Amino acid sequence: MKAIGVAGVFVLTASTAQAQVELKTYADASGNIDVQKLSCAQLAGTFQEDADFMSVWYSGWYNGLTNAGKINVERAKEMEHRVIVYCKANQDKKVITAIDVVFKAYRKEKGIRLKDEE
User: Fold this and answer.
1) Quick one: which of 53, 63, 58 has its CA closest to 95?
2) What string of DSSP letters covers 71-90?
3) Beta-strand (E) ranges in 27-76?
4) pTM of the model
5) For residues 43 and 54, is the Cβ–Cβ distance under 8 A?
């Protein structure tokens, strides 16, 4: 019986394992990545350090749009984790969509209201 349980875990692990690729795989001929078109499948399929890098880049991009010049490192790491989890479950979505969904859920969870959401 124990062997069946171990075999089941092995099969589950093997079926969910995917080959990871470098982020630069998704760059155009000039070496640029269109961050508005990057899909969740692509982000989920990169190495962790590439996903971390993109999370920091997106954070800076969004903070720049709102003129926010601060970062809460622990919250940023938590949000990165939530975006990755969302992306793994919704690989057909764009990363920018995942960020929007995750941030709105976080604000709702914390009771944070933005002027444009009232």
Assistant:
1) 58
2) --HHHHHHHHHHHHHHHHH-
3) none
4) 0.76
5) yes
Find tokens 């969910």 and name the residue: 16
Instruction: Evaluate whether 71 touches 63 at the Cβ level (below 8 Å).
Output: yes
The rounded distance, in Å, linking the Cα atoms of 97 and 115 is 20
pLDDT-based confidence at residue 28 (cuts at 50, 70, 90) = very high
| CA nearest neighbour of 47 among 13, 22, 79, 26 | 22
> Do 80 and 55 meet the contact criterion of CB atoms below 8 Å apart?
yes
Higher confidence at residue 115 or residue 74?
A: 74
Nearest to 95 by CA among 22, 24, 46, 31: 46
